[in-house]
Structure formats: structure tokens, C-alpha cells
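ESCALATION

Customer reports they have been waiting on this structure for their group meeting. Please prioritize. Original submission:
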Amino acid sequence: MKGKSRLTVVSIFHYYRLVSRSVMFLVLLVLYIIYRCNNGPAILDSLERTPWIITVVCILFAGEMIFRFFPSRLESPGCQKQFARNYIKSGQTEIAIQDNNGTVLVLLIWIGFNALIGAVYMAGLIDDGIMLLISCAYSVCDMICILFFCPFQTWLLKNKCCSTCRIYNWDYAMMFTPLFFVMKPYTWGLLGLSIALLIRWEVTFYLHPERFSEQTNDYLRCQNCTEKLCTHKKQLITLWKHIAEYTAEKKKQLMK
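Update from on-call: job pushed to the front of the queue and completed.
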């Protein structure tokens, strides 16, 4: 149909991660429930008896993070704007980053929320398995934010889209925050790598803020976007409206 936009390669990669992370979360949830119902050993102890599972998961996430340290056409412009090769001078010199002030608020909310979870964990009310499930849930929510709806964008940062997002590369550090309380070499390894990625992002921002501003970097303009997620989000909103209208019409017919 005319007016429909095909999924870009970047978008397909996002959907792949959404599906794979959702499957991982559901499998982990089922295993946790089974272990708890059968009064079995802690889920991490059980997984460590089949170390290849942990190895594969850690390699996949570590690979994704290492991938972010380098320029790539398979990643979102939101995280690629930090690289010099993606800086297209607009001719303007005034740097304006609309959502920069909201980053402190996001940071405080995230630390406070996870500190509460950590306090519950330290009190012994939840175990390592729950912390692992929370981390997996965060990873799924990360993709939902990119593909469908982002509360940080809508309510706090007010940025135009993911391409201009000030905190795009905070995602892995936010995902793995609960792993701080799970004292295992592999969990701390993932958390440490995610923090290194965040630090690299922040250092680049303070050294080269012009790369992060749509006014000074034409790479962030809509016409140069390789993601086109805003188009698909609009299509999804339109689809839901049509479904709602169709459902309402059918209800009216049934009530006659």
C-alpha cells in the first residue's frame, strides 16, 4: 500500500532483540517458578551447573556492548552520533540539547528506584533469581521504549526521537543495575562493561557536545535517519485506532 514504510535494517535488528530478550525472560521466569514450586536450589546455582547457558547469554550481551564502542550501520543513529564520522556540520555553532537538564532527574529516579529494590533484596525478601528477572525485564522494556513507547522521552526528557536522545547509551547500564547486588563474576562483568560504555558516552558528550545537537549535527536530521522508527510508531498508532473503531462498531451492532 502507498504511504507504508518498510522496516529498515536497523529496525529489524531492534525487533530481533525484542523477541530474543522476551523469550529469554519468559524461559527464566518459567524456570524460576518451577524451582520455587519444587523447593529446588537457587536458580543461579542451577544454571551454573550448565555453564554453557550463562556463557552464551553473557557473550551475546557483551558482544552487543562491545559492538557499541565502534561505528556501525546496524545500530541506531541514537547511539552512533557520538562518533566523529557521523558528525555532519550544519554550519551553525550554537549547541542546543533540549533534554540535557532532564538527565539528572532520570539519573536520580533510576538510582532511587533501584536502591529500593536493593534494600528489599538486602532484607532477604527477594533472591538472586528475582534480581536476574528484573534485569531481564529491563532489557525487554529497553526495546519497548525504542520501538513503541518511551516514558523517559515522553515525560522527562521531551526529546524529539531516539536519534536525539541524550541518554541513549545509558541503556545497558540501566538494564544491568540490579546485577550490582548479585555478586557473581559474570554479573559484575556485564555491569562493569555497561558502565564503561556509559563513561565512554559521557566523556564524548562533554568533549564533543556538537555531535549530540541537532542544530550543529545534520546527521540527526530526519532526512538522514537510517532508522525511521517514528514512521512505524505512527503506523502502529493508526492501526490501534482502526482496531478500536472496529471493536466499537461491532459492539454497537451486537447491542442492537
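Sent to customer with the following note: DSSP finds ten helices and no strands in the chain.
Escalation resolved.
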